Amino acid sequence: MAGSNRDNFSKKTIRVLGLRANHRCSFPGCGSPTSGPSDESPIAHVNIGVAAHIHGAAPGSRRYLLSMTPEQRSHIENGIWLCANHSTEIDRDEMRYTADVLHKMKLDHESQVSSELSGSRLRTETDFVALGQDLVFIGEVIGTIECEWQLRIDHFLIGDLSALIKFSERFDRIDRYDRYVLVNALGDGRQLAAAPVWQKTDAGYIVTCRVLKSFPRTSAHNIPTDLALSDAHDLFSVNGDFATVTGLAALPQKIRSCLSTFRGEMQFNPIFGTRIKEYFDLFRDSPWLLRLINLEVIRLACVPYYDSITKQDYTPLQSVLRVQSIEQLSSGQNGNWLPFRFLLEIEGVGSWQHDIPIFAPTGERPEAPGA
Fold first, then answer.
1. What's the pLDDT score for residue 369?
2. Which of 298, 310, 62 shows the shortest CA–CA distance to 189?
3. Whole-angstrom Cα distance, residue 32 to residue 128?
4. How far apart are CA 298 and CA 130, in angstroms?
5. Which of 25, 213, 298, 341 would be 327's cystine partner, CB 3.0–4.6 Å?
6. What percent of the chain has pLDDT over 90?
7. By the 8 A CB rule, do 174 and 193 touch?
8. Cα angle for residues 69, 262, 314 (degrees, 5° grid)
């Protein structure tokens, strides 16, 4: 029950709790789906999932912990995703369902979801696909005809059918930099030439996308000269002059700077940059994080950006043709910089591997040094 003394979850926290649970009840032996289609209309859906508090949200609950701050009570770590029935059950029997029991219940369920996503249940040709900013789903490319890609949607991760319809209806009013399709299984993506068209079939939702041809890349050997940054991400000098990098040697720095720039932080280019910081905040320690980062790298590699100052189109990563794999390294973290290993296909080079740190601070979004 809502009230002024109740520390409720934010809408974003509720959404992410559901995503981390794969919209299934976390109660042992249940696992019931908590969302699905409604018969009211083709875009309506039903949700019976509940973001329940582990430690009580308000005084009066046995699980209420007086020492917790309101921020801690409404934090995602204090939440568990349950169906409506089991949400009621844990509140009726608080002696049995203690905070420790619920914490373990949540961890066990998320661990199971993680193993399902990374294991054999996720077919190798099936992975994350993005359509514009607000749609990410599990699916695959099922066919191409000239400049048309056909995609099958298995399950929405971000957005839903309503968001897909809205994207199609508003297509002409969306900045062309945000009109794209990205496919993790291909390590590739394209700018959309027209609004996507969808239909419902026995196999699920099928989306047809008309795409533009692959945008030409710059040979890595021709990347322009830039000021070099040290491992501490600062400018440094050599023989009294600022050090520079050029060609293939400039590519790691180009990738690091692009991926460490937050979308919206550049005053004159507000749509430039990535959502990686947002994904770290929402999906840190989840199996989805690397797949979402992978999509962002594909976008910067494949989707041309129009620079209003130079009056030119270019892909931010300039020489990257295809994203083969990205791996987060377990060691080497330096403050807010996290190390990743990139395996990329590079224009003029071929397959290329390099370890590159990404700026991913927790909390508020400070300016990335050297970005």
1. 43
2. 298
3. 23
4. 10
5. 341
6. 48
7. no
8. 165
Give residue-wise pLDDT tens across range 181-191: 999 999 999 99
Alpha-carbon span 354 to 252, nearest angstrom: 7
Cβ neighbours, 10 Å, residue 137: 22
Q: Tokens for 15?
A: 């959404």
248, 187 contact by CB (below 8 A):
no
Q: Say how far apart CA 244 and CA 237 lie, in whole Å.
A: 9
Is residue 349 classed as helix, strand or coil in its secondary structure?
coil
Provide the token pair at 190.
């394209």
Contact between residue 211 and residue 348 where contact means Cβ atoms under 8 Å apart:
no
Q: In the prediction, which pLDDT does 370 show?
A: 42
Would you give the end-to-end CA distance of the chain in angstroms? 46
Which residues on neighbouring strands pair with residue 226, listed in sequence order?
A: 245
Beta strand residue intervals within the chain, DSSP E: 35-37, 45-47, 49-53, 79-83, 127-131, 136-145, 148-158, 180-183, 188-191, 197-201, 204-210, 226-227, 237-238, 241-242, 244-245, 305-307, 312-314, 320-328, 337-346, 350-359
Q: pLDDT (tens digit, 9 = 90+) per residue, 177-220?
A: 999 999 999 999 999 999 999 998 887 789 999 999 999 999 99
Cα angle value 198/299/164 (rounded, 5°): 20
Residue 65 CA to residue 148 CA, distance in Å, equals 56
Highest-scoring range by mean pLDDT, 207-211, 227-231, 276-280: 207-211
- Name the nearest CA neighbour of 151 among 111, 76, 210: 210
- What percent of the chain has pLDDT above 70? 90
The set of residues, in sequence order, having a beta carbon less than 8 Å from that of 230 and lying 6+ positions away, is 236
Residue with tokens 């974003």: 12
Residue with tokens 């399709």: 181
- Dump pLDDT digits (tens) for 6-17: 889 998 899 889
User: Domains, the chain, ranges and CATH?
Assistant: 11-118 (no CATH), 127-210 (no CATH), 220-359 (3.10.450.40)
Q: Write the CB contacts of 295 (distance below 8 Å, at least 6 apart in sequence).
A: 128, 130, 136, 182, 184
Separation CA 209–CA 170 (nearest Å): 15
Averaged over 339-364, what is the pLDDT?
89
Residue type, 156: F
Residue pair 25/31 in contact by the 8 Å Cβ criterion:
yes
Hey, CA dihedral for 171, 294, 265, 371, is it positive or negative? negative
